[in-house]
């Protein structure tokens, strides 16, 4: 999706606006209400969604640390976003890759009218923060179970500043790829970048404790499903909020999102049953995630049958890369990607971006982008006499994927090297054996008897002790 507008595209609060004028004429109450609802749904994907998912999907000894990494990132990204990040991603152009840093805190700015939808600028700032936050938190899934928490605290603002904002500005904010790449809601900007960056950071941080890497069962599968549920249903706001209007595209995007996700989940479970003779609950969650990711770059731009096709391909091809290729190639084995973020986000995001270039319907592109400069989906161009436009669009999709991949791999490496000069990226071996108690002095579950002596029994019958002595 192109969110491309610069600071001059904002209309500041009109002069003489009365304090009691809570809803100016330009403000669509319906669009505003939906946008705030959609933003809240996206935020719920992170807190509590990924907080619960991460805290449940790891071993018990890492539950607190994993959940806290997501919790901290959500707060840190918001502060950085309003102080400088939003304008770097969507502000006045400083360079072809980035906007000019500036704060997004003034009343005149936040309460002005945005030309992207009939909503206040504040809606846009907060919605884009939710996108930025979940990107960083998804990246954390590659690093659970061993990254030094102090290194993570430094990593979050640095990566947001020098990696995420660059991708967002380049594709959405008026950069050199704006209005060329079909990326409706972040298949490249969010998922490909988090998957590549997570895999790269995992290489630099190093692997988990050897025993953890061999044996890493979830500590609570029921809670894991609860976190996954927040993620799935929250995606309604993720893809439904991107048009910034309660219109036809939003409705179609929501239906397509859930169709693709359900199809991907069922295909993934089917492969598990065929190959391993059991339906894995963890596999179902992975299939769900790959479907959500794959549909994101084209959610409002493809027809429902195409969404189901995308789900079938994401559930099968991503299953193959994770369950087959990952085990065959030393390249994948050499990097400890804790929750397989590379496969569920980088591979699925890339697949979704390519399929969007193939399956995007011209009429839907025009509906979403009235002043479009995009080509048409390749499959439609073969029948409507616009083959050149279709191939050009596919080339743009590949170009965007290459840029996001190379930039994130390079910048994430530089950030990790810089942080390693300040603090250790990886925890000490002794702390890796202990887990949460060593890092935070806290444990996830206060199981009765853990570290406590058995209390002396208090008998209700006064004669029982004397009977025992006999």
TrEMBL record:
Location(s) in or outside the cell: Cell membrane
Transmembrane segments: 33-55, 62-84, 124-144, 151-173, 185-206, 218-238, 244-269, 281-299, 305-326, 338-360, 400-419
Mode of membrane association: Multi-pass membrane protein
InterPro entries: Ammonium/urea_transptr (IPR029020), Ammonium_transpt (IPR001905), Ammonium_transpt_CS (IPR018047), NH4_transpt_AmtB-like_dom (IPR024041), RhesusRHD (IPR002229)
SUPFAM superfamilies for the chain: Ammonium transporter (SSF111352)
The keyword Membrane is assigned to this record: yes
Any matching Pfam family: Ammonium_transp
Domain annotation Ammonium transporter AmtB-like: ranges: 33-445
Any one cellular-component term (Gene Ontology): plasma membrane
GO molecular function: ammonium channel activity
Keywords, alphabetical: Ammonia transport, Membrane, Transmembrane, Transmembrane helix, Transport
PANTHER family: AMMONIUM TRANSPORTER 2 MEMBER 3, AMMONIUM TRANSPORTER MEP2
Family: Belongs to the ammonia transporter channel (TC 1.A.11.2) family.
Descriptive protein name: Ammonium transporter
Organism: Hevea brasiliensis
Lineage of producing organism: Eukaryota, Viridiplantae, Streptophyta, Embryophyta, Tracheophyta
């Amino acid at each position: 999706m192109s969110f491309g507008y610069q600071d001059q595209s904002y209309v500041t609060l009109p002069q003489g606006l009365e304090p009691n004028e809570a809803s100016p004429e330009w403000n669509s109450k319906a669009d505003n209400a939906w946008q705030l609802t959609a933003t809240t749904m996206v935020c719920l994907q992170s807190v509590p969604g990924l907080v619960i998912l991460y805290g449940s999907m790891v071993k018990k000894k890492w539950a607190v640390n994993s959940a806290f990494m997501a919790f901290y990132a959500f707060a840190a990204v918001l502060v950085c976003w309003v102080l400088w990040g939003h304008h770097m991603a969507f502000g006045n152009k400083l360079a072809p890759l980035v906007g000019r840093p500036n704060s997004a805190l003034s009343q005149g700015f936040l309460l002005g009218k945005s030309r992207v939808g009939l909503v206040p600028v504040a809606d846009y700032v907060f919605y884009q923060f939710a996108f930025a936050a979940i990107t960083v938190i998804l990246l954390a899934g590659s690093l659970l179970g061993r990254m030094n928490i102090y290194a993570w605290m430094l990593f979050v603002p640095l990566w947001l500043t020098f990696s995420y904002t660059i991708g967002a500005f380049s594709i959405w904010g008026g950069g050199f790829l704006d209005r060329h790449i079909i990326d409706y809601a972040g298949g490249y900007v969010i998922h490909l970048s988090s998957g590549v960056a997570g895999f790269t950071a995992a290489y630099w941080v190093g692997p988990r404790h050897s025993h953890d890497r061999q044996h890493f069962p979830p500590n609570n599968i029921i809670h894991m499903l609860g976190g996954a549920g927040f993620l799935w249903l929250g995606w309604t706001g993720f893809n439904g909020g991107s048009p910034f209007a309660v219109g036809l595209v939003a409705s179609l995007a929501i239906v397509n999102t859930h169709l693709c996700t359900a199809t991907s989940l069922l295909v993934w479970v089917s492969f598990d049953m065929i190959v391993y003779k059991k339906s894995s609950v963890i596999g179902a969650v992975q299939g769900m995630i790959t479907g959500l990711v794959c549909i994101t770059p084209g959610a409002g731009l493809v027809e429902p049958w195409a969404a189901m096709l995308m789900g079938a391909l994401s559930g099968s091809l991503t299953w193959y890369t994770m369950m087959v290729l990952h085990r065959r190639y030393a390249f994948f084995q050499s990097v400890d990607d804790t929750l397989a973020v590379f496969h569920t986000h980088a591979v699925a995001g890339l697949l979704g971006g390519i399929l969007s270039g193939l399956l995007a319907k011209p009429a839907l592109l025009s509906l979403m982008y009235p002043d479009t400069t995009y080509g048409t989906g390749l499959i439609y161009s073969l029948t409507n006499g616009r083959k050149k436009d279709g191939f050009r669009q596919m080339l743009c999709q590949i170009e965007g994927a290459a840029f996001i991949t190379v930039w994130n791999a390079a910048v994430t490496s530089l950030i990790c090297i810089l942080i390693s000069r300040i603090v250790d990226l990886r925890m000490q071996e002794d702390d890796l054996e202990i887990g949460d108690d060593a890092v935070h002095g806290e444990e996830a579950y206060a199981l009765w008897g853990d570290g406590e002596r058995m209390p002396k029994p208090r008998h209700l019958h006064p004669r029982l002790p004397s009977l025992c002595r006999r």
